[in-house]
Amino acid sequence: MSNNSDDRLIFLILTAQHLLKKRLQEEFRREEVLITPSHTGILFTLEEKGPQSMNSLSEFLFVKNSTVTGLIDRLEKNRLVRRNPVGGDRRSWHISITGKGLEELDKARKIIHRINDEIKEGHPESDLKGMKNVLGAFFSKFS
Asked: pTM for this one?
């Protein structure tokens, strides 16, 4: 492995992720979106796949159950999701998105699309395709 400082892929990936999350948080706050970037993964999943168990959300988003529980608690407090009991099991829930959750997700989606366009700006399609290929391979290797 090279000692070249440009070969610090983990540092670059983590820093890019941090900067992107910070930018999204600032834009969400500026445009008075009630959710955080961390909440969007849950809401996008519920919008696309319908009601999900906590375990399903945890597996799909690659986060711990306790993390999902905390995120769901905050979303439920703001009436953006609803916990629906499953059968006769008091410990089992399916989480569904509410109308208010869909409204907040739409506001977030507009910001996400705008920032996504900013990321692509000034880069040829070949660079973007290469970035998508690298990220796709990254997910395949580590998920």
From this structure: 0.85
